[in-house]
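This part of the workshop introduces the protein records we will be handling. As an example, a complete record with its sequence and its structure tokens follows.
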Amino acid sequence: MAMIDDRPAICDQEPVDAEALFKEAKRRERRRRLGFAGIALLIGTAALIVATIGGGGHSRASRGDASGPRPRPSVSGSRPWSLTAVFKTTLVDTPVALDGTPFAFAITVTGTPGSSSPWGRVSRIDLATGHMTLGPKVSSLSQLFRLGNSIEILLPTNETPNGAAIGPWFLRPVIGQSTSLGGSVALPFPTSSMVLASPQGPTVGHDGVWLGSGSSVYLVNASTGALMLSENLGGVIRNISIDPTGHLLYVVPSPAGIVDELDAETGRVLVQDDLDAGVPSAGVDAVRGGVWFWFRTGNAGGVELLRSSGLKALPPAQGDSRSMATIPTMDGEAMGGIYPTNVGSAVWLTNFSGTSCANPSSGAYLAGTAFHTDGQLFSWSPFAIWSGRVYATAPVTGTVSSEIVSVGVPGVCR
């Protein structure tokens, strides 16, 4: 069983953690989400951005490596969006929001300098008050995700000093709006590799959840651990996402430019599309009627909205001069690849230039703002909407912490 320390704690702000711990946790998280092949390129890109930001070419680092002051959002011809700091903490990954509540859950890094294997805590963030409640101690390799109307956590038994998972892996629910964890369910498949879940989605059938590990995806009963279906896709699973109806599953196996569309109820592969084979990193975010596919190649990247049941790229809406994936910029030059995130009723498209919200099913531009950061890099990752504001994480200049910020946005983006 995974080690659990159930002593709770309350804090408004967490002090700056040890840099070595945070960088090691983020390194392992990038391996989990982007695949080992893309790590060297991401690190190299970060260095190149810092070196060339004042020159002609702009490149993009991974979000965790970006730094810069909190921006002054601005977009020509409209009122700038207001951005407010909530608090700082040290996160392993982007928080997961619990719909209909002001709460989001995250794994925050804990430990002491020089420790060989940093641990984290399941933490509840109250977006309304800015308070954070620290809960059970878990491996920093664990992953939180939303399954239907609840939050679940995937966690290994332990991890080695060099950050490799030690199986077997377990699935545990977060109980209600607390930080307490329910009973463990052992996963019924080989667990020498990392285990991935769709960040959000409904159950499939009765308590079914799709998980990826190694070169296969598995449909597991979340309550009993029973294996319901499995499918070998022939490449290491890098990213998975299930559509809001629970009928379609999208998977990015190696090489990263391939996207598989599966029938979520039978496990049958419906379409395999070689969109940009060989790119160092790629991912998917499923929406009703389609899936957003993003990829990185070199210092750039792109995003496409693909129709379900065929994976054909959706063209921009007719007569829409500001087509899919438009992001406002301060100087007309976009910086880095675009990352889509489905939050609330919109898909958020983000790069170093700014952010915009788009219709998730058509890709039509709704609203956006540019980031004015005085020549410094800034990136953010939206994760929740509460009381008319979007909440996101952003790196804090000169520290190992992330800052949770809230942004007042137009009603069309909520």
Remarks:
- The CA atoms of residues 260 and 272 lie 4 Å apart.
- The chain has one domain: 9-413.
